[in-house]
Batch of 2 targets.
Target 1
Amino acid sequence: MAEGKKLVIVESPTKMRSIQGYLGDGYEVLSSVGHIRDLADKKDIPAADKKAYGKYSIDIDNGFDPYYVVSDRKSKTVAELKRALKSADELLLATDEDREGEAIAWHLLETLKPKVPVKRMVFHEITKDAIQAAVGNTRELDLALVDAQETRRILDRLYGWDVSPVLWYKVKSGLSAGRVQSAATRMIVDRERERMAFVSADYWDVEAAASAGSAFRVRLVRVDGGQLARGTDFDDTGKLKKAVVVLSEEKAQALARAVDAAGTGTVTKVEAKPGTRSPYAPFTTSTLQQEAGRKLSMSAKQAMSVAQRLYEKGYITYMRTDSTALSTQAVQAARSQAVSLYGDSAVPLKPRVYKSKSKNAQEAHEAIRPSGETFRTPASVSSQLDREELRLYDLIWKRTVASQMADAKYETTTVTLSVQAAGQVAEFTASGTVYTFKGFLEAYEEGRDEKRNSQDAAENQSLPAVAVGDELGMSDAEAKGHRTTPKPRYTEASLVKALEEHGIGRPSTFASIIGTVIDRGYATKRGQALVPTWLAFSVVRLLEEHFADLIDYDFTAALEDDLDAIARGEQNRVEWLKEFYFGSEAQVGLRQVVDNLGEIDARALNSTRITDTATLRFGKYGPYLEVADPAHPDEKPRIVNVPEDLAPDELTAEKAQELIDAPVAGDRVLGENPENGKVVVVKDGRFGPYVQENDPVSEDAAVDEATGEVVEQPKKKRGAKKEAAPKPRTASLFRSMSVDTIDLDTALKLLSLPRIVGADPESGEEITAQNGRFGPYLKKGTDSRSLESESQIFDVTLEQALEIYARPKYGAGSRRASSALAEFDADPVSGKPIRIRDGRFGAYVTDGETNVTIPRGQQVQDITFEIAVQMLADKRAKGPAPKRGAAKKTAAKKAPAAKKTAAAKSATKKAPDKKAPAKTDAEKAAARSAAAKKAAATRAANAAAKAKA
């Protein structure tokens, strides 16, 4: 770096490249690639500090002082930043302007310890004007925001590390609890509980065709003056909430026949009401996630990922914000674009002003909108953006322009008809809405979430001109039955909305929270709906019974308000943490709750009574029904598997009985193996369907003629202990096979695996084809190669197998390289072309040197060149996995007072003195050494063989 340059540090490599182009040669822009420090793992804390920091990496007795370390994967990044800083004359910390960005900037300051002037540079869009303006309008680091983010991190560590272990021991290992995550899980479970308790009610109405020159549909609303029942008139137990007329099917059909017989109806009322609709405010983080879910079917995580790319490329403003305000320039840009597209009447006389509901100082000061003082239309940027980026940009552009447009004006006309039908007065209505001025609807209309009892909504239609007293023809009357519906399950969009309405969490974290809920197995997606698992029921039940406050919606929202108060400088961080953890007169602390948990009955926790004899239990391998025999209560209950795709609200008493009574699909006899006379059966086990060879069934054994199932005989009394019988031969079914359709020939083929393909003519080694945990593959000695499909196991020839082995196992000549899913230009670091390949563990990005798996929830088509470059850069920054015995990290403790002096306590960890290894350790070390030597010899032999070839 040339002398006299200014060093600018941002979080993202993409952001780095964009800003470097705007600042020119007088600046060097580098990326920290996210956070560089975090709370230490227990193993990374030196022995001298373990007593104070050992449990949480937080000294809870001394101001909740956190112990931070630079992660292994960021040590190289920090070294590069320090080298660049040595020749800089000024440091500009240009991380995002929210709370997390402020914390990243503070960690950079504490780690780099610059000796040159330091300034905080903030901006909410990456355009040339915005970046150059930000350089000239810097500020000091906001320590209140840092305090708030640090408090949040400490709080989440205390919560997670105290509560999660309880879940491991009582529900299932690998689970986690979190301040927002657990509340979100409870919301999903509570909604399913409502659906399970819901009792549907039936009601009927009548629809008919009325004609006055042109026909239109009318619906029965009153009979003899009494209002007809609608879905909203019933509560969740199926009972009426008020006095209304409930028609049975027979009465509705009789009334429909009477209306057709009457043939005419009289117009008794025509009512026209004018109305207006105002445009929606520009996007906040929350509303963007909701609309992207409704209109683009994007998950919250995907929406934020695409928005991040648009921001870093300079197309939109910062995407983490609670504000609905627009700058003066943005308002003018939106109004100008609306006028140019839709005419002068498209905008009101005065600009619209939207006030943010958020009072949080840490949030960005503007809504999400297209960047710049003039907005680029979607058509003008279509060649520069990928499909998902363009779809989201189009949504943001439309919403922003529409927010400054005029109100839509409409008129709703309602016509009421009276029909004399078999001595009863039947009143019908029809409604039609006509927009007299579309206003903002020319540009944008917000999507809607699914609502219950939507069948009752009146159909909008075009109505003819009629007047009171007109006689209209009535025909085609039809009785229609309806059932009340429970509340719809949450989608990601509606869950984000509910979390925001409850004040739980911050919108910027919703995407990661929902992702965690799904990844932990607490919910699955059925279409767009989030369906809770029985595992989530067990977790929520434990938390409700033993951590009631922590999962209470109001308590969780109050925590969020307190954290916001800390961000505004109105609350003391240490005092607040003391009250939360140790408790006070007003509330019980987390420490007290954990220390006084008492006994937790894990079996009861993981049990849900479905019927008097069937109990749903959640075990190691998933949910199952435990069915007791009332006649023999002391006998071991029968186990009945529950289908994985069966939602909790669908497991009714009737469905449970259906599962119990269903014929057993497993143990179906397929026939006899002609080679050994053994009986081949197909079973459906906990790990999937498989076939098995059994000893021949004796002539006395009973076989169910309907299912082919061998009826189990009573076990004989145990006698003298015998030698263990050899295990029967088994083979898993292929994914394309079914327990119900597999035949004997296919089963015998499966049992014959591995199949011998032939011998390698050069080495003489046998090549076999077989199926494994990660799919079909060939094996020759210790060298294995994947096959493309399961059918190849039976079909691949020796010539084809030799051709597969002739290709390099990895690299440009391998099968995967030749069938890349996508290809890009050369990586700027390695200079090699970037490809996306399909690997054993899913699709991954590679440049031939560095591989990085595409995260779950992100599709191959979502990956652009810029994203691929950043993924590879992130992976390189992590470095190789740390070797056993490698030098430890540099650690830094931070005291609260350190911020005021812009200095932090730091401690270089010393390696503990080596002790004489125990005998068992020495034996283990010798074994590892021998294994390493053997591996090295194998590699050398392989290299020599390749050199000869």
Target 2
Amino acid sequence: MTQSLVTSAIPFGVERADQVDAKLKEFRPELFGKEGLVRSALRDQGVHFMSITVVRGEVGEPTHLVFEMSVDGEPQHAFDTVGSKLALFVSDILSVAAIQSTGSLSRLLASHHVRTGQGLFDVPGLDFCGTPGMTVARIKREYLLARELRSYFDAYPAAGAPLGTIARVRDFVKANADLAPLLDPEPFPRLAAEEAARLDFGFILSLAFRGLLTFFWPVLCLLGLSVIAATIVAGLSQGFAVGVIAFFLSIITATVAVLAVVVSVYLGLRRLEVANTPVDTLVNPDVMASLTDAENLKDTQQNHLAGISIMQAGLLRGLTLRIAFWVIGQMATRRFRPGFLGDISTIHYARWVRLPKTNKLLFFSNYGGSWESYLEDFITKASTGLTAAWSNTVGFPRTENLFFKGATDGDRFKRWARRQQQPTWFWYSAYPHLTTARIRTNAAIRQGLGMVSTEDEAAAWLGLFGSKVRPATLIETFEVQTLLYGGLSKHPYATCIAIQLSDDPMRACAWLKSIEDQITFGDQPPADKVLICALTADGLRRLGLPPDVQDAFPTAFRLGMGSPGRANLLADTGDDQSKQWLWGGPENAVDAALLIYADSEPVLASYAGELISGIDAAGGRVLHRVTPTPLPQPKPGETAVQTVREPFGFADGISQPIIKGTRRWMRQSDAIHAVEPGEFLLGYPDTRGFFPPSPQVPAAMDPGNLLPLTEPKYSRGALQPDFSTSGATAARDLGRNGTFLVIRQLAQYVDVFNDYLGDAAKRYADHPAVPDQLDPALLPEWIGAKMVGRWKDGSSLVRYPHGPATRKQNGGHFRPDNDFLPGAEDPLGERCPLGAHIRRSNPRDSLAPASKDELSIVNRHRILRVGRGFDASGANDPEEQKPGLLFMCLNADIERQFEFVQQTWAMAWQFHGLENEVDPITGRGGGMGRLTIPSPRGPLNLTGIKDFVRMRGGAYLFMPSRSAVRFLARLGSN
């Protein structure tokens, strides 16, 4: 429906102005409260807002009685409504003002209608509507619906699946004759407040060109005629060739003339801005008392502002005012979100208008909140627009280039604004208790109630009651398996069970369904036990996932860790090749892995036994089991990082990426380690702002509507959910809130490693690269530290090059340092060698010292390590009776993260300009490995590095979300 902002200005004698103001104030009790006569008369008449203001004229100018109205329909509807419903009240006001009318009140108002426009010869004006397309009737109906639903939830709180709650709410609404029609959503496409387009050079250029045509067309027409005349005269008198030359010369001359006109206007503007004298006097106390008396009325969430400013003299200021209104209007329609003025969303209706035949610029605004908050919003979010309009008036704070400074001088601007303001005694609002945000929310509640069809949409709809739309970057914690939030150090006992599922999809799905409620999600795990479940590509196939959906998963995941292509990439060759693995190879491929964590060994043993029995009963079997060594319990004041040691004796788990939005990020927002959720979770933006590819399924495969939508319009970039299109037939996102889990069982040759360090210490004891201040007893550990990049206590070589931190601090609760930048602090690698394990695994700024861009690039390849060490008995390895590491990591892109680290950094022979070197800890050099240890006195070339680690089994797995687990468990029945 058309909405109109209407202004009528009726002249009368200034000597009666005070009497008219007093009469307007008399009617104030009739404007508020259910029994107010004016309020009752305007109820259900399609009038959003109405005010009557006295605008006093200067010497030689009339004073005006200004009617400002915001109505549904055409302007005539406003005049007719006032003429028929408020005749008694308005006639009384007109009588006091001695305004005579020979016709009807409606005709009087229409005859003094101020029609505004943005053309060169229009009355300058600018209108703004904060709830476009929303009628008074609709706003009230949707408010009633939202109020009733809130009462419903007070009595019957939401419980169970969100879609089930929605179904119960719909039944409740259907049973109410007044509410039932609201189940049919009205279209409101502007509800989706998408991010505004940014300014760009093309838009600014087009704006300038259109502005030139709009305001300088008389000049352009004259110059155009001149060009035509010159061309014709020259052509007729001197011939065609001369005419063509004259045409182009005339065009050039006209262009220069246009530029000269524009420049002269600009220079004139700058002279006026320099000459303008800002007025910064305080507001008259009596006026201030009247203003505050007229604001913040009881039981209202709105206020009205009537500002009356005096225009600076001259035609040029009239032109710049028109230009300002036109630019703001273009921005509002082409760059601002509908219903928003820049980033301001609290305005219901506002209008600027130049009162004809006067020097007055009027500003009327109906807004939510207090005057102070309203002005602060303008100062911080839309100061350029305010400055552009009001800089044309007398006494405004000093501006530059029409749009700049001015309103940014907040305190002076607010004092100036108060001086322009006039108390509004006669002001009506159809819904004074509602803000624009609440109106939009109520519209979203109604829209969603009729359109929601999936669990994620239903959850977003329920969030409208006392919450906000979930931003695209905010993790849906309750959907993500607990392992993402850390290594579960408070559950020191753990085991990993690699299983093979039944060939019967029905039985395989039945098994998954039997454990779906036991899988742990969220960042607050139970105190006794935790279960994590992940599936390989073969496991998804056994569950009955169709081949076309399987193909949507990444190539690395589908091929599997044990495939020939991945083996070459990961350097899983020789005795590391998958044919020799205990599990995960071509002869013993796994379908799923269960990770069980417990607070005690009896709980772990009992729970693992239950799960294994369930696997056997469902026709599956356990292929392998690894039981990590229980974590040592930290002493008071210690953390797990300070106590956990991997089999070689080094502190482990120190350097980890910090995912934005998790509790760890909120506690420890270390910028060099902070990464976006999309680097580890599907369905979220990554560091570059893009959403990683995620496997999709057609809606027909998800009859229970369990999976989230692939394109969730209800959250991405919206300030209110958009339920305008049904998601019933839209594709579903199987990957959202899921991640990929890499597991590698690594046997570690601790005795070989220690023997090598001892032999190397003897061999290089007198080498000049060994620091003079190094304690000889520390030389073996120093060599090991150079290979790893840290001392055994976790302190970095970058910060502690000559000895572990705990040695200097005499023990204590040392927390391993992790905030260093090796590129900036140790660019030559003289402290931490360029080829050291930690520098290969996470180069930080090594490749471009102190570069934030380099850190951002490196963080795109980070992995979240969640592994644990095991002893020889826990390995369950008959061939290698060795301790080792159950390496596990999470990443959203196996190729870009885990495999990249392995291939491009850890196993790259020429990493960082080195030659024929691989990772000295995890590399497979076969006794030919080497590490260059730079020093000011020449490098120490550590040679003969043996193989310290052997690959014994592993897999690439998908760790699904809660919704995905429920969906996969029901594939058999679907």
